[in-house]
Amino acid sequence: MLSSLSPRRTARLSVRFLLLLGVSGAACMAQAQEQPLPQPVEAALDEGDAGSPIVVTARRRAENAQDVPVALAVVGGALLEQRGDYTLSAVQQVAPSLQLFSFNPRNTNINIRGLGSNVALTNDGLENGVGVYIDDVYYGRVGASQFDLVDLDRIEVLRGPQGTLFGKNTTAGAINITTRQPEFSFGGQAEATLGDFGFHQVRGSVTGPLTDWAALRISLADTHRDGFIRNVHDGRKVHDYDNFTARGQLLLKPSDSFSLRLIADYGKQTLNCCTRSPYAVFTSYDDGTAIANNFLQRTARAGYTPLPVDPFARKVDVDARFQAFMNQWGVSGKADWDLGPVTLSSITAYRKWNWYPRNDGDSTSLSVNTLSHQENRQRQFSQEFRLGSNGEGRLSYMVGAYYFWQIINGSGASGYGVDAPLWLFPNADPTVRQAAVNGFVARSTSDPETKSYALFGQASYDLIPDSLSLTLGLRYTHEKKQGSFDQWWAEGNDLSALTAAQRAAAITLRNSLNPVASYSTGFTDDSLSGLATLSYKVTPDILVYATYARGNKSGGLNLTNIPAGVSADVGPEKVDNYEAGLKSQWWDGKLTVNAAAFWTDIFDYQTAIVEQIVGTNSTRNYITNIPQARARGFELDSVLALSKRLNLNASLAYTDAYYVSFKNGPTPVESLNPTTGGSAITDLSGRPLSGVPSWSWSAGGDFSVPLGTTVLGDADLYGRADYSWRSSYYTAVSDSRYSLVPSYGVANARIGVRLEDGALDLSIWAKNLFDKNYVDTLSVANTGLVTATLGDPRTVGATLRTRF
Questions:
Q1: Do the Cβ atoms of 718 and 707 come closer than 8 Å?
Q2: 248-296: per-residue pLDDT in tens?
Q3: CB neighbour burial string for 493-513, b if at least 16 within 10 angstroms, e if fewer
Q4: Which domains does the chain have, with CATH numbers?
């Protein structure tokens, strides 16, 4: 409850909030004699104003969303503010075709229509099929988008292949995030939130003019929450949240025809996560044979009693100090020149992201895996030029050129403690296994580098003015990737005292864990992608369209401990997407109904494999191409604005995603009996793609009721509630039944009182209102242990917000 906040934390939060208000107030006083009073913010708060257009930039120009023949979902910053959610993962609760789930911030998976990322661990040599853009800048690593977002204007979720307008080509879609620009009138907002599990957050922004041609905006967010899982080994709470984000912008407009927007941002997370909770244990294969050296046998040999399997007791017993630390910073500049018939734009950006994790590889408090992590230090640079037409003629177009460079320096470590020899190799010679494994540490480095060059363009022509339109787009991409991988034995016992036979056996044991390896690889790839869309305005309020799009994603690099027979290079992925859609408004714009149906064929689908080595309890991980996969389905989005004070929304998505051809798929753990020579290969053709719920839907509504005049001014009572639900889905590529995440639904609600001029707003809220126990991901070990990433329990709190 709120009382769980310590006096020290409460005082710290109060000081931060007062400092934020103080800085804002001082700025306000400095501008008071120069600037008029801020205008009321009723329009921003009452987003349900019937018929008011939603402006998007999905096609790199400002348009009414209902006039854009693209399947997209738009989540406004005001809606996220009502929900109290400022992270990318919250968007999926109002955009069902979007799926995000995470083993940790680095290993976050983003899917649109079932495509984009498999559910295995992130591979540094491969990009996600869903591109994430913040203020026109592509983020090369998904983990870099997992910080709190500040000063949001809107988030656009674009479905299907992108590339003829976006800087980086993607096969599944794009998430286009736009923040508020600096303004030439003074204003801002600040808020403070307290909740249970020690949750406390301050957020704020201030904007205003520096001169008559320069404006500034500064935004920040500081969020903390205690963990909701207790580690009984040391009594610590884990799976907490600690995030700081700051963003500064400078907008220069020396003339009506030129503007320059400069942005600098910084983010830091210091999380004690991400522990996985015991979810199930199975001790035999499907044929009834006991799993040799299974989890319970291992713990019994060590004299260790594991916790009862009860994930929602929210307890773990591990000796590792879990850590998921990351930080990032970046700078960008966007210049726009209005040259009359055309506008020339330049976007230059440099970013850096660092990831420093610590994990526990055995899910016990035994000293087995003492080191298990992969650090990353990523840098990227991008340069984009666009030339777009101005005016309202029958022809509109945009052409562009794009360059992207990225390098990821990876550092891995695997270490083994005093309990590891017997845990891993019970049948080995005790002298050999002790010398080979206890204190053994292997380290690795990798350095995948990407250089991508592209030319792209898209044009729309009104075949019949204001009625029938044809859009064509084309993209050429040349991409070069190269990298190296090195793994060596960094620490371990001296084996010289062993006999020659014992030394050979010890080396065999070490090689089965982390073999010495060193190799380099690389490739170049050239691809063409494009789209053709025919759209027709049946009436001014009804648009129908049909689209064919070809998407391409370049190949990848297997920079890891790959087994023999697996290529270090991964082939490119190709997508053919067929789509038909409807966008409509009814009842003078009060009801909006949008629908789309799609059929997507994916060739050489890139995925990660976790494969058990026959005859052993070991696994191997690598990325590869699946000959063909398919995703087909439909989406429905609706909004009913009954009045400026009452709005309802509902969205539904159905996705049938499956492997068309996957004859060499990995065998599920429970089906593979290595002692009987079972095959590690299974024909998974026709099986569902992992990480994809077939059905997902969300519904919500908001209201406001005038309370009349109070001591502080005219006030409203307002509220919002929403519910989102997803059907079950697998989280293992093999479709192991132990990786099937059960269906679940989550409800959120908020109610509050605010002054109509926005000067004061006080609300109480609840997330996961009904305290639903659910899991995001399941992992199945070859020992029979199944572990889960748990969803957050119910949290309640209160928020105080002010605008000026």
A1: no
A2: 999 999 999 999 999 999 999 998 888 889 999 999 999 889 998 999 9
A3: eebeebeeebbebbbebbeeb
A4: 2-803 (2.40.170.20)
